[in-house]
Structures are given as C-alpha cells and as structure tokens.
Amino acid sequence: MRMLNSIRNDMKFQQKYGFYIVYMIITLSYIGILLFLPNSIRDVVKGIILFSDPAALGMFFMGAIILFEKSERVLDSIFVSPIKVDEYILSKVFSLSLISTTVGLAVVLATKFTTGNLVSLIIGLMLGSIFFSLIGLIVAVRVNSLNRFMLGIIPLGTIISFPPFLLFFDINNFILEIFPSVIIMKLILAGVGIVEINYVYSVVLIGWIFIFWLWARRNVIKMIKSLSGI
Known about the structure:
With 230 residues, the protein is mostly helical. It has ten helices and no strands.
C-alpha cells in the first residue's frame, strides 16, 4: 500500500507540472512525423525515436522532478515518512517508465505496426526508461541547480547514448553487444521488426540496471544525510 501511494503521489506531481500534457503533444508530433515518412525509412526512424524518447524522458524529466522537489522542500517531508530509499527510487523510475512505455506503444500502434515483436518492444521501452531514469537520478540528487545538472547529465548521457548509433554503420563487437544502451536499442529495433535479438541480452541489461540502482541508492542516501544534517 505504501509503495502504491508513493507511485500515485509521483504521478500526481508529474500531472501538476504538466508532464502528461507535454508528452501528449510530443506523442502526437512523433506520430505526425512518422506518418509523413516513406515506408522505406519509417521503421528505422521509428526505432531511433523510440530509443531517444526513454533516454530524454528518463534523464531530463527525472532531473526536473528531483530539482522541483528540492526547490519546494518536498524531500524533507518525504524522508521523515516511513518510505524507504528503494521505495523512493522505485516509485520515481516506475512512474516515468509507465509514461515512456505508453507513449512508445501509442507511436508504434498508430504508425502501422506489422512485422515487429511487441514483447521485445515493451521490454526495451520499460527497461530503457528505468535505466535512463536511474542515470538522471544519479546526477540530480547530487546537484541543486539546473545548470549543474546539465553540466553533469550531458557528458554522461552522451557517453551512454552514443554507442547504439554505431550499429547503423555496421560497427559491432562483443563489447558493444553487452553495452546497456546498445541492448536497449536492439530490443527496440527488434520491436519494430528491423533486427532479431537474443533475449539473453535482456538479462545482461537487468544486471546493468542493478549496478546503476546501487549507484543511485548510494547517492540518494548521501542526499538524505545532507538534508538531515547527519
């Protein structure tokens, strides 16, 4: 019950600041752009959009949420409640992953989904959003201003997000195959019918998520201690 209340509160917070309206507009824009593209390139562009969307939503919207909470001193009330650190993180990443997955499915289903793998698409969108949300959380809890957040998230986000685009130049090796963002891209591309993927890589991605979860957890604990003055 406490976990559900936390997720519900996060969703209310997102609604209050217009996240859902913004994403409704973004979704309609994605659909409009894709419908005007020729069939020969539509699936490739769709895959790139669906990869970029969880990345942008997870990293930048997570940063905005944390900075809003800090500026309005919401964190003080959150951490005097019985909520645990893992519940706080889970609530944040799960609520954002719901938006990202819903948007991704809406875009795909509205732009002639035919040959793709819906299961792969859902896994890629959900795990991709969780992964990138953790990156945004890791950076956001360590800073107190938007400028400092951008200085931290842009280089880290670029390093994480760039390798998947090497796939479009036929550059591939074992290191790339187990890189988290490459796995996310492959799951999404399999979802729109461009490539095939071994689902064993999903397990590797979950391992990466666990590592970043521990990193995020450590940073959140440091933030709590700084708030409480311990």
